[in-house]
Amino acid sequence: MNLFESIIMGFIQGVAEFLPISSSGHLAIFKHFFGLKDVGIAFDVLLHLGTLIAVFIAFFNDIKELFVNGFGIVIDSLKNVGIFVKNKIKKESTNYHKVISTPYRRFAMMIIITTIPTGIMGILFDDVIENASKAIIIPGICLLITGVLLLIADLTHEGKKDENTVTYKNAFGIGVCQGIATLPGISRSGMTIVACLVSKMDRNFAVKYSFIMSIPVILGAAILKIKDLGQENLSGSDITNYAVGMLVAAVVGYICIKTMLKVVRQKKYKYFAYYCFIMGAVCIIGFFC
Length: 289
Hints:
0% strand; globular; 289 residues; 77% helix; mainly alpha
């Protein structure tokens, strides 16, 4: 892969990961039409890490609070285990610590609950997902589905739920939707934001939740692929090209996150829906031609 191709794929990853048009679908289309059968595990991992960097920069304060409160959940849970053992042994009735005691602790628990079904589905259907991008008709059909979902998003009435009022049942359902969105052509951000809006979330919180919930998914996918990195023989030029692609994905991804915040507020999903319909039709026609 040359430098130009790395830049283009980094751009596609950054744009399509956060705009509701499916990064996996567009990367599959690009590979198909430009004859890139195998771009390498390392490059795939770096592209996703680039978009992960964008999320960390865009929501740094929220993510910092989530990490702090996440550790607080673990510490208080361990303390409660100690109290439970002590109460049993010494026949005492010491009160337990309240684990979910702040909005950010509740937010962290929601992210954990959302990640569970996504992770299970990703592991169970890994081979199906990988093979789905090999035939361009699959991303084409999925892009049409994404277009329909985006039209639903614009028709959804304003909700008011935030980290204080969204239920854990909502979080689990959104996780299932995120798992479905691993299919190439189904936009992860589009699918999850639609799921959040249907769950009556506030639009600003829906975008924040959708992007932050991608962190454990992207990290998990990268960790699963690390074991395959040793199979690649990378030259110095490959490493440079890959690093540039990752940087492009990060910069473009950050810009698109900010763009999405405005899109959701102004209910302008329909324009992305039309684009998905066009690209989906192009893929399907291209498959039969």
